[in-house]
Amino acid sequence: MSEAMWAFGRISGIVALVLLTGSVVLGIWTRSGRPLPGLPRFSIQLIHRNIALLASIFLVLHVGSLMLDSYAKLSVADVVVPFLGAYKPFWQGLGTVAFDLLLAIVITSLFRKRLGVRLFKAIHWLTYAMWPIALVHSIGNGTNGTSGWFLAIATVCTVAVAGVLIWRVSSRFLESATARNAVH
Amino acid sequence: MSTHSPFGVNRLFAAGARATYRTHLATYGDLAPGSSRAELIPELERSGLIGRGGAGFPAAQKFGSVPRSGMSSLWRSSAIVIANGAEGEPRSLKDERLLRDAPHLVIDGLLAAAAVVHAGTMYLYTTAQSLPSVRRAISERDDARAIRVVEAPDTFISGEASAVVNAISNGVALPTDKTVRLTTSGLKQRPTLVQNVETLAHVALVARYGSAWFREVGSNRDPGTRLVTVSGAVPADRVLEVPGDTPVRDILRACGATDDDIAAVLVGGYHGAWLSGNDLSVGLSPAALASHGAHLGAGILYALAADQCGLRASAEIVRYLANESAQQCGPCMFGLPEMARLLERIASGDPDRRLARELASVSESVVGRGSCHHPNGTTRLVLSALDAFSPDVQAHLTGRCVRRAGR
Amino acid sequence: MAGTPNRYTLHIDWTKCDGRGLCTELIPDLLARDKWGYPIAKTGDPAARSNVAVPGSRLAAAGDAVDLCPLLALKLIAPTDAR
Fold it and tell me: Which of B15, B52, B97, C13 is the most buried (most CB within 10 A)?
């Protein structure tokens, strides 16, 4: 039973990381205002949201299963307050920080109409901190964090996010960039 | 009614330059005490007073749109009245002149307006130049102490009604998005009446002498007097008080200009329209100007000298307006610089025949697509320039300008 | 101001709109895009293009546009007589 929890805890963490990466990439993509082949802009927006929610579910499973696991024995405090853990407190603390940040991002997204676009945006920017912290946590804390296959996954995720980020800061990023730059 | 009533056309400045409270009272008499909503709004309606700020909205209608307080005022907070003296138009000097020479009429009007809509709070919003005279006038009388004076920045759009409310509540004189009228929910979500200072000065006179007196001057469709600012091809810039509906030509002549000196007149300021030299017999009233596609705005006449290029003058104005965009709304932020660029190309003699059509199409595309009327007003100016100076547009295509000075 | 009798209107807050184009995909019959990407109403008085009349059949799609606008620049305003 405990073996199963332990395995599930690790796998759900990896799935959450991959899903988060997908959501981050699509989130940055939506900012460009461009559609994808066969995917209109509103679909990209919806997929971005839904993948993020799916990632959150896997993250809850990841944390939940490790709370039940007799070896990891995460406490409620470990889940909310970083760097208290008994095992690899630093690397586990990073996971807690990422979890807290994601919690804030998801809640402000769900209530963004009530909170207003300013607060929503400000908190959403924390994604740029949350994602790398989550990645570093997975490498440093994961049982397979430094094994070849996992590093391959981590590399693909990093390349994907770094790639769209470089594009994001380029002057041609916006769909309407050419027309807008012509004026100003 | 008082026996002091000033007659003739010299109404607003009857107390002379820089009128003190003493000379003001000696000239106009006391403000009729306690004019109530039930009395003054119908009186204003009969007077036919049209707002002097630019939108040309009937004053009585605007007063009437402030919700009545009464039993409901227990849970609905009281109204706010703002006297708007921020004439962002560089070609308008009339509000500054009014606040310098007749600040007490404006204060009277503000007090009367506040009494009518049961306002709990009064503001006077104006640019730095007018602050000393306004503050001095307020200090001269006991009944004006509650008026809060707020400085307006010297920008083109600082006097737009929602920008006024934004400036007073947040210190940012930029227009805001509106889904309800300010008279329903404005400053601090309270019903807010924003009236131009000249409108309020006329309200003060109607409250004293009544609507019949008010209508003795002017025309049926534009009763009373108006302040106009005349600049450009005239010996000196001037602020005049004229009867409503006075022909444009008469006003220009009064300023010392003759028809031969003038190629066209920009009516209504930078958001206005050009009247060609042949149309100068039109009366200066919203109704008469509407038939020429023009509007009165804040009573601005800018005369273009006969040897001046109207296209170049318009291009300079459109560039100015593009620079004055608040950069909040996309169509204005990108459309106005594009309009300025196209008009500059036409004015400089670019032979591309498609430019005028492209300019008209971009201009029409920005109309109604902003949180204020800045794109609409700029489009009005551009389209009227293309219309009034269409022979010039043709001439410029061949690389020459029909105006002698070539400037 | 934005409310109209008998009809829902889609109000565009131009101070928030950044022309990302999601709304124009969802209600292409009501909104086109200008060359800078900003929505432009296809119907109605040009001077009143900040408030787009929404026919009953397009209410759901307009609601999606309001919900998916990344800048929260859209608002669906109920008919004035429905209050």
Answer: B52
CA distance B26 to B371: 45
CB contact under 8 A, B364 and C46: yes
- Kindly report the CATH number that applies to the domain delimited by B225-305: 3.10.20.600
Q: Mark residue A33 as left, alpha or beta (left: phi above 0; alpha: psi -120 to 50; beta: remaining).
A: left
- Read off the pLDDT of each residue in B328-351 and give the average, rounded to a whole number: 96
The reply to whether residue B367 touches residue C38, judged by beta carbons under 8 angstroms, is no
What contacts B12, CB < 8 A, 6 or more positions away? B98, B102, B105, B198, B201, B202, B205, B225, B227, B241
Neighbours of B314 (CB within 10 A): 28
Contact across the interface for C25 and A41, Cβ inside 8 Å: yes
Return all residues near B91 (Cβ < 8 A) that are at least 6 apart: B229, B231, B266, B269, B270, B300, B302
Spatial neighbors of A152 by CB under 8 A, at least 6 apart, are none
Amino acid at B407: R
Q: Which chains touch B (3 or more CB pairs under 8 A)?
A: A, C
The overall average pLDDT reported for chain C is 91
Q: Where are the alpha helices (DSSP H) in B279-329?
A: 286-290, 310-323
Helix axes A127-141, A2-32, angle to 10 degrees: 150
Average pLDDT over residues B243-266: 92
**Would you tell me how many other CB atoms lie within 10 Å of the CB of residue A77?**
10
- C40-44, long-range: CB < 8 A, 24+ apart: C40/B331, C40/B365, C40/B369, C41/B368
Instruction: Name the amino acid, one letter, at A102.
Output: L
Give the model confidence (pLDDT) of A106-128 as tens digits.
999 999 999 999 999 999 999 99
Task: Give A147 to chain C, closest Cα distance, Å.
Answer: 39
A9/A61 Cα distance (integer angstroms): 7
Lowest mean per-residue pLDDT among B120-129, B349-358, B393-402 = B393-402
Confidence of residue B33 (pLDDT cuts 50, 70, 90): low
Q: What whole-number distance in Å separates Cα of residue C62 and Cα of residue A46?
A: 16
The reply to whether residue A33 touches residue C26, judged by beta carbons under 8 angstroms, is no
A170 Cα to chain B: minimum distance (Å): 20
Domain ranges of chain B: 21-214, 225-305, 310-397
Range scoring the smallest mean pLDDT among B60-74, B88-102, B224-238: B60-74
Give dist(CA B34, CA B114) in Å, integer. Answer: 11
For B21-214, CATH number out of 3.40.50.11540, 2.60.410.10, 3.30.70.270, 2.40.110.10 equals 3.40.50.11540
* Topology, domain C8-82: Alpha-Beta Plaits (3.30.70)
How far from the centroid of its chain's Cα atoms is residue B280's Cα?
Answer: 20
Q: Hey, are the CB atoms on C72 and A112 less than 8 Å from each other?
A: yes
Give residue C83's pLDDT band: very low, low, confident or very high (50, 70, 90): very low
Task: For residues B32 and B213, give the distance between their C-alpha atoms in angstroms, rounded to a whole number.
Answer: 15
Chain B contact for C13 (CB, 8 A cutoff): yes
H helix and E strand count, chain C: 2, 5
Residue of A41, A113, A179 lying closest to C36 (CB–CB): A179
Element (H, E) at B260: none
The rounded radius of gyration (Å) of the Cα atoms in chain C is 12
CA B201, B19, B240, B266 dihedral sign is negative
Question: Which residues of chain A have a CB within 8 Å of the CB of C37?
Answer: 33, 174-176, 179-180
